[in-house]
Amino acid sequence: MKKWLAISMSTMLFGSALAGCSSGGEKTTEKETGGKKEEKVEVTLAGWGGNPTEQKLLQQTLDEFQNKYPNIKVKYEVISDQYMDVIKTRLVGGEGPDVFYLDAFEAPALIKTGALEPLDKYVTDDFDINDFEKPLLDAFKGEDGKIYGFPKDYSTLALFYNKKMFQEAGVEVPKTWDELREVAKKLTKGTQVYGFGVAPELARLYYIAESKGGKVVTDNKASFADPKVVEALQPIVDMHLKDKSAAQPSEVGANWGGEMFGQGKAAMVIEGNWAIPFLKDTFPNLEYGTAEIPTINGKKATMAYTVAYVMNKNSQKKEAAWKLLSFLTGKEGMKIWTSKGLALPTRKSVAAELGFDKDPLRGPIVAGASYATVWQNGTNLPIITNNFNNQFVSAFLGQRPLADALKEAQETANKEIEGNK
To answer: So which residues are the signal peptide here (predicted)?
Structure first.
């Protein structure tokens, strides 16, 4: 989770400390220009931090905005720790920023509180909503069908494979999950190199869990003990325990899949766009390729992780806040922000203009956006996820049968959900 959040996840920001209160009165100054009084407005923007290149890209985007709208000053704040807790506290206290980041995972719960401004009424024809990848846009719609945020960037998952290892083993890039399992066996070299590196967590396995027709979440409660879900996930466990062809990063001394892959301890991993700059910087001599995730039961599937800009419903500067939000998620602003490929554009036209849809490494990641399952499902997904992860790992390590582990996890999750009512 930390890895994909670090993209944008795609992904992130920098800035100075915020001292203002957006829900208070409008703070303006007046400037004499040509005999007319020009009103200046300060809009607050909040997000989490990013690497220096991302900081520079965001600053370039904000500079361009302020060149276009000289009367609007953007005050940006980085909230480095406990981001959502800080945002929620400030919103409740009437001190929330005018515009801020919202991860799709957290969106359903915050939308339900009524703290966000619906954005449909601000949209004009030139904003072109249909240009957004549909699954990513839909992630920020409320139960009322209104749009509460526009996605700024994203990543899906793709298969990363070591070209040299594939060539030496004489195997082709797998097109189906069954092929992946067989290829993983041929690529495995004892405990020195595993054919497949696994991230045993729901954020990475959700699309697999539902591939047999079962549901991880039903009516905002855990339902992943469904035999169809168990059947879908069992091959992952079997690759580790029976085939001995898969391992999680910690078993080989790595912190995450990208590192495990870069160190040559896994011939294949399933990762997102964030792995590309990491591999370039950390393992510049690694020869690898990417491909869309092998099909499951004849169907394409992947996950998507996305973040939106949203507006505080209590903002006293909504007109200026919309100008900022719409510029950041419009074609012009998005092109600047995603120009280096550290974050991928949620607009199809921008992805095409920047060539990411044809890029040898990013192309498969972009291709998945149209059919991806976005990482979110209702207000109780955090509770459901924690319980799933705790018990799935125990099954993955062979400590208990998968069906038993998921049954206990589901029961515990739903007790917690009931207790929170």
So the answer is: 1-19
